[in-house]
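Issue: copy button drops trailing tokens. Both records pasted manually instead:
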Amino acid sequence: MVLALAMSEKQLVSQLSALGEALRSADVGKAGSFAAVFNAFFDIAQGPDLMRLSKVESRSELQATLERTSRQLLGDETAVLNGLRMFGCAAGDFVHGCFFVGRTVGTFFFFTKNKQGLVAFNSGTPRTDYSRITTTDLPSGTTPMRGPRGEA
């Protein structure tokens, strides 16, 4: 039984590695590129291993990123995440979960080592909006602030 668990964990890590590569190579200019990546995530999530190897987790920096992304997508600077569920899978340096923001459902995954992930937003219509997220650590003592707006 222990050997079977180790094999399924190795398989999951391999699947997550392939998912990370698919995310890195997804192209905003290619229609359906992010949908294909998110469908690959759903394929992994349908199996028992991801949830079996995941634990409830809280990451304030990821939560803040998800909130900023949601506000930008919805065009509402007061939007707040509700019902956030976040799970970490240490075997793949991977965090995944879901939340609500207004009438919109958000589902996400995030690679902690690469600091990159994908969020899908659906408001109950056939349309799903995707946003790739990338975070970076700021040097100690740095204060983040908005820069000047560029011209289009």
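Record 2 (pasted manually too):
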Amino acid sequence: MSLSKFMLSLFICSALAACGGGGDSTPPKQPDIGGGGQFATAGIFDVNYGQFRGTYAFLDNGEFYGLHFVGDSELAGHPRGVLTSANSATNREAIAWANFIDDAQQVGKQEAAGRFGRTFGAADLQVSIAGSMGTFTARTSTRKTWGDGSTKTVYADPIALASLAGAYNGQVRTAGIGMPKDAVGAFAIDAGGTITASALACTFTGKMVQHGTTGVFDLQLAAAGPACKLNPALKGVVMPMSFVSGAAQLAVMVNSADKLHSAVFIISKS
């Protein structure tokens, strides 16, 4: 069953909860990565829509990058965009949205009607996303931490680049090139942030640079190879998912400027 049919059946059963939501219409406050009485308006957050789960990174320049998961850990989608100060859970704005498992072949396609909104309240975050599969809302009052029981957040308590350096493996999903999920067995980060990787008949090289004082890294990634179908110039972020016992799990999310190609690596340190 495709994700759209799966979600549609659940969506019909929970239409009131999924569609009837909406946060307050107060525009988001200026970026604040935490502290004081104001809930952060930039950071990394886990949300649960019921039908699927999301992990979202909101940067202080309005950029947002997200992941959607179904089941235990199946990567289902990658919404992203630049949100304005007028954006809210009840004033959704157009976004790009790679859907990795909605098509019959599960080779990934770009959602044509994606819209997203977020409202930061005094003590929580409300999000709302809409597309061809329906409209879904969720709320969270906690920021994503390094791991269970940790008080450090992956956004406001940066993991040192030296601690992230090493060899990784995992998987990659793409949209726009007609290829299914692929294994990633050769992904390396050196102490200076240089990335080298191979997957999808492509070789990747790039440099990750810390985004300000946060735990997110900006990334320019080049894809090459005679059989490589991805746009050669990709841009995005490296987002920590966890850091437990000195081992990191990272999400590497990159996209082409024309919004047609997406690649998301979910990798763990070997």
